[in-house]
From TrEMBL:
InterPro entries linked to this entry: CFA/CMAS, Methyltransf_25, SAM-dependent_MTases_sf
Occurrences of domain Methyltransferase (ranges): 65-153
MF GO annotations: methyltransferase activity
Domain of life: Bacteria
Organism: Treponema pedis str. T A4
Keyword annotations: Methyltransferase, Transferase
Protein name from the UniProt record: Methyltransferase domain-containing protein
Pfam name, any one: Methyltransf_25
Biological-process GO terms, alphabetical: methylation
Amino acid sequence: MIKSFSVDYNTLWQNSYSSLSLNNDREGIKNMSKKEAEAYAAFPNVWEDGRVRAAGIRILPGETVLEIGAGPGIVSFELAAKAKSLTAVEPAAGMLQVLSDEANKRGITNIETVQAFWEDYEVKTQYDVVVASLSLITKDITGFLAKMNAACRKRAYIHWFASETSWEKQARDIAEITGEESYASVPKINIVFNILYEMNILSEIRILKTTSFDRIFDSKEDALTSLKKVYAVKTDRYDSAIFKYIEKNYIQKNGLYIYPDTTRFAEIIWEKE
């Protein structure tokens, strides 16, 4: 194992991850309702982005796929179309309901779903290809990656954040308005790359140039409501200032208010020798 004596990347990940309350709410994730999952899956750009991400994942006829954190199937269906079979491991009940419903609508029969966090999933066999697309929801990133590598027979793919996310930037902006403490930063893909390196896994990394998740609202009032909910603004005293922020930072098009996603995403790939 290659040792890094200057930086403890696993601790860096743990410290950053621990401050993210959403990711630590395991029960909340497990009990996500179907309605909540449907709201996420309702945006066409999410599915288009999933199609593009899946296109970069090489799957040969007859190969088996394990997808970690499948969500409502954003990437799953494109992968299943190329694979012999796909096992979708997803902790959120609502997400799996949406995935199963959508698979039935599309006539897809080669997907097996399992409700579990990756850490809790019992791997009983290896899979040719293992994918974790925007799903590194774990405090123990070293254990997550080691288990992922052990489950992989041929190739592994990870999609994750390569830059400050648009919502991290927005959190800082809203914090400046309210005077509250800004949200913590999500650990980025450089940590993943370095931990893999310390595990003697030499991976490739590339930027996903088309991945983007713009947030679209029917009115500035809807945008205000969303901002206050997401960033826990529980008073109306800042509404005027937040409206000015929306007018300045959102794109107005065809009566809609669009908050552009400037996040840079990346893909990590490694092959088993």
